[in-house]
Specification:
alpha/beta; TIM Barrel; 3-stranded parallel β-sheet; 11 helices; globular
Length: about 425
């Protein structure tokens, strides 16, 4: 992987796995070997900028807690010897479980159980100009809160005036849980008399699929969270408590971990399946001007191929509503989405329902080549080839493009064409 990233310019963080931490933290020579084999051997071709020593060690690997700071120090000495200490910074990712009471952020403090180690850790970061690595996952806090915080707050969506969330000690308003987590970390460091250490978010995301008791883990929420997170980070606004400090952030994660133990949601944080097909599509561009109220800003649909023979579409439709177990109640005669003269629209409804119900477990959008993927359209992009309107009936509020000959529909209302033409899909 490090060789594949060579000469790309991409900034790379290399991790010391938890199961190697004891050896590295107990032996200066082992730490030096680790740096030589995993860092020095790939620089300068591969742009390694940070080393993450362990992952959530204090809360998940307490037996390794006492060697965390020695590991940091030994690795730093090895970087110094290799003359890489200015290019590569060392830190260790922590979860927000390290913070006893994260809200309100102004009174947040680290768990006193780890006070001695945290003091040494923060002193190391301060001395080496390294960031505090934070795994900020609003999904967990939202679920644990059991309704204390609204879902919109966790997903960066606009809150109702009656649901505004503020810190009573600072009168700062928080429009999202992510910012509150970051500010809680800054204030926890300040409570230990450390200021000026930047926070780097090393993991933040949302699961796209969960078990029966994990209702918040679904594709729509995952897509909304990560899309809004990208927009939030790229607008350079910082947080309410640290408005001038941009938070460098890594999305967790690229691939689903289908072999991971634990609840269903733990296996489904990726934006791609293990076979490298996409769970949903993200765009990593500056979207600061887009509307955060749109329930889903960008994604993938499974729609009927309008050029396929109607007999083949009918066969695929029967399979989707039968053995495929798609929910086809809305496209039955007499129901709101039934169109007796438009099998493409009816089949699109069934295909999309099947695809979104099953893709977390490997379901595809093929249907014997009678279906295709279409990218969802952002609301601010209102131009498509508009010759004859077509309205697709969907139960959720999404934007969909069927083909270059049809205008898009948003909330069931035809969108006014722009002068600028753009093609999607």
């Amino acid at each position: 992987m490090l060789s594949a990233l060579a000469n790309t310019g991409i900034e790379v963080v290399v991790g010391v796995p938890n199961d190697q931490l004891l050896r590295v933290g107990q032996s200066r020579s082992t730490a030096a070997d680790w740096i030589n084999k995993n860092v020095a051997a790939y620089i300068p071709a591969t742009n390694i900028t940070h080393i993450a020593v362990g992952n959530e060690v204090l809360t998940t690997e307490p037996n390794a807690a006492l060697v965390l700071v020695p590991a940091l120090q030994f690795l730093q000495s090895a970087l110094l010897a290799a003359n890489l200490n200015t290019q590569v910074k060392i830190s260790s990712p922590h979860s927000t479980d390290m913070i006893s009471k994260p809200f309100p952020p102004s009174t947040a403090t680290f768990n006193s159980t780890w006070s001695s180690i945290m003091l040494q850790y923060l002193q190391f970061l301060n001395n080496t100009a390294s960031p505090f690595m934070l795994n900020a996952q609003p999904y967990y806090d939202y679920v644990k809160g059991q309704g204390v915080f609204p879902l919109e707050y966790a997903l960066f969506r606009s809150l109702n005036p009656d649901s505004q969330i503020s810190d009573p000690n600072t009168n700062l308003f928080y429009t999202n849980m992510f910012d509150a987590m970051v500010d809680a970390t800054y204030n926890s460091m300040q409570a230990m008399n450390f200021t000026g250490i930047p926070v780097m978010v090393t993991a933040s995301g949302w699961p796209s699929h969960g078990g029966q008791n994990e209702k918040a883990a679904n594709v729509d929420n995952a897509l909304a969270y990560n899309t809004n997170l990208i927009r939030h980070v790229l607008n350079n606004s910082g947080t309410p408590g640290q408005p001038n400090n941009q938070v460098s952030t890594f999305i967790f994660e690229l691939f689903n971990e289908d072999l991971r133990a634990g609840p269903v949601s733990e296996k489904n944080w990726g934006i791609m399946f293990p076979n490298a097909t996409t769970v949903y599509s993200l765009t990593f561009e500056d979207m600061a001007t887009t509307n955060t109220d749109s329930p889903v800003l960008r994604g993938t649909f499974c729609v009927a191929n309008s050029s396929a023979p109607h007999s083949a579409l009918k066969q695929s439709l029967d399979w989707a509503c039968g053995p495929g177990s798609a929910n086809c109640s809305a496209i039955q005669p007499g129901q709101p989405c039934y169109k007796s003269d438009d099998i493409v629209a009816v089949a699109s409804y069934a295909f999309n329902d099947y695809y979104h119900r099953t893709r977390a477990s490997g379901g595809t959008c093929n249907f014997n080549s009678t279906a295709m993927h279409w990218l969802q359209w952002q609301q601010r992009w209102c131009g498509v080839w508009a010759r004859k309107p077509r309205q697709f009936c969907y139960t959720n509020s999404l934007v969909l493009v069927d083909s270059p000959n049809y205008i898009a529909v948003y909330h069931g209302v035809h969108v006014k064409p722009c002068k600028k033409m753009m093609r999607f899909g």
